[in-house]
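Thread: Penicillin-binding protein 2, structure

OP (GT): Posting the sequence first so everyone is looking at the same thing. Length is 676 residues per the record. Can we get the structure tokens written out before standup tomorrow? I want them in the notebook alongside the other entries.
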Amino acid sequence: MSSEPSIFFSDVNERQGSFLRRTFLLGGATALGLLALGGRLGQLQVVQAGEYATLAVNNQFNFRLIPPPRGRILDRDGLVIAGNRPSFRVMVVRDETRDLDQTLDLLGRLLPDTLERRRAIVRDVNAAPRFVPVPVKSDLTWDEFARVNLYANELPGVMADMNEARYYPHGGVFSHTVGYVAKVSDRDVAAVRERGEAVSTLMYHPGFRIGRQGIERTLDPDLRGTEGGQRVEVDARGRIVGEDVEGSVAPTPGKDVVLTLDTDVQSRALEVFGEESGGCVVMDIRNGDVLCMMSAPAFDPNLFVSGVPGSVYRAWADYERRPLLDKTIYGTFPPGSTFKMTTALALLDAGVDPTERVTCTGGYRFGNRTFRCHKASGHGPQTMHDAIKNSCNVYFYSMCNRAGIDRIARTAEALGFHRTYDFGLTGQREGTMPSTEWKRHAFRNNPNPDARTWYPGETLSVAIGQGATEVSALQLAVMTARIANGRKAIEPRLIKSVGGVDRPSGAAVPDLPFSVQHLDIVRAGMAAVANDVTGTAYRVSQLGLGDIQMAGKTGTAQARSGLRRGTTVEWASRDHGLFVAFAPHDAPRYAIAVVVQHGGGSRVAAEKAREVMRVTLLKDPDMRTRIERPPPPEPVGPVEEEDPAAIAPPAPAPPQPRPTSVPTGPQPYLPEGGAQ
């Protein structure tokens, strides 16, 4: 008989005890777990409820930075010369795209020109902060804008909207003075840090533009405004589903800036320059307001807003006439004969009699060298008035050392040379005004002591605006304005107001250190230059505006040794042409300075100055009244009624003797040698 295996417990309670132990262990562990879970849930829901509620809200909403609208720049009449215009654009948000390369490929089908800038777009997108839209293309046409919106649902992370872009309605007319805006570069950020300032988050925004040149750069903090922000609600994929209006902050627009420039005068100046290179400055001699500050050739600042193509920028940089260079404040040139008024004032200050005559035979021998006059046959006997009118070099050669180089330098600085002006533009060059101290400093490292010594023969070149003398077009305009004003050391003013707050006038300045009699002598010589039939600028200085006439001074400065004129000469070797003037010469109101780089002579500059001055005068209501005023009627005697019975003609009247008395009372101002 087989037997089956059996289990026998020695103790009947042994099996029951083992079961109970296991039950208690598992139950205790479960209870502890439930207790810990309940405690943690209580902590999250009660103790830390507020903290996690805030985190949840922050995860639900994004705060997107909004650049402020840039302040406008206006001319003296309120015309916008730098403003903002609507612009359609398409943008990409990196954090909302699943595959950036695929998204850009799809965009390239809609906007083929974005493929050319693919590398730059990827760089901008990767450098942008999180959830910040990066512009891929601006200034979309309506068809492009509609095409992108049509396929927007198939392009994750792509959005198209309308924003404001900087706009310069007059193109290159104000390009150098007003400047332009461009994308923020690493150098801009580094410059802020070097000044010890905190870098604003706005500077990292891809849509923000910073002032790069001219007024846009100088007044950038005022024009920039204050950024705002849009608090938007997003879903789990980062897409916008709503906006928290109460949590959003509207940006504050920048301040409007009003300049003293006149759009019509500035436009005419650029027009008359054509393809020439140079600068033109017009000032109101009463208050220093700058009506024109034009540099040619110009460039279109609108191209910098969205980025200048590399080929275009290289063409500008390589062009010999330097369109990117402001020739009114940065370009400096020898003043030529326009400097002779400065030398004349220095001679008068030294006690030279203006009626003393110097005979010009076409050259002046000094030491072992002959200094030539521009008229090879000579001008004959010349007083100071004649020397200014005829631009006689020999007169100033023979007289200049009576004043000496240091007195000439002091006179030049009193007239506004060899300095910069705090009037709203950086990048000015102060030029060069030779003196004994200047030479000691300039050649201080030369071991030869003779190289640091000033010799009288060097004064001859400076006296006629050559040698080491260099000035800017702005400085020439200031000199002319001060001579024309005759009383105040007028300062140029370019910024009229910022945010509605007026800037100080250029007339709040000290008096000139010259006597009225000396200034009258110089002004009379300038009037003869433009109005005496033998003056050097008579044929090109007639305004044709009634009885209004200019007083001016021509100048030709050598760019190479020896005079070179004419279109057959290589452009870079031609002489510079200069002309300065003020009008009306009997009641001065406006001063002008024109520099034509390698223009070939002063005639070209004088012709341009005449056209710009005509527009300036015609825009002045007082001058228009004077121009339109009818001439006074000719005096006539009493008219007797004719006797119809008289057949024979009346007998001729006997000749009357000429009056011997001199009329009294105020007489019209006519400079010596002036046109009657």
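GT: Both are above now. Quick notes for whoever picks this up: The domain at 63-259 is CATH 3.90.1310.10 (Penicillin-binding protein 2a (Domain 2)). The longest helix spans residues 14-47.
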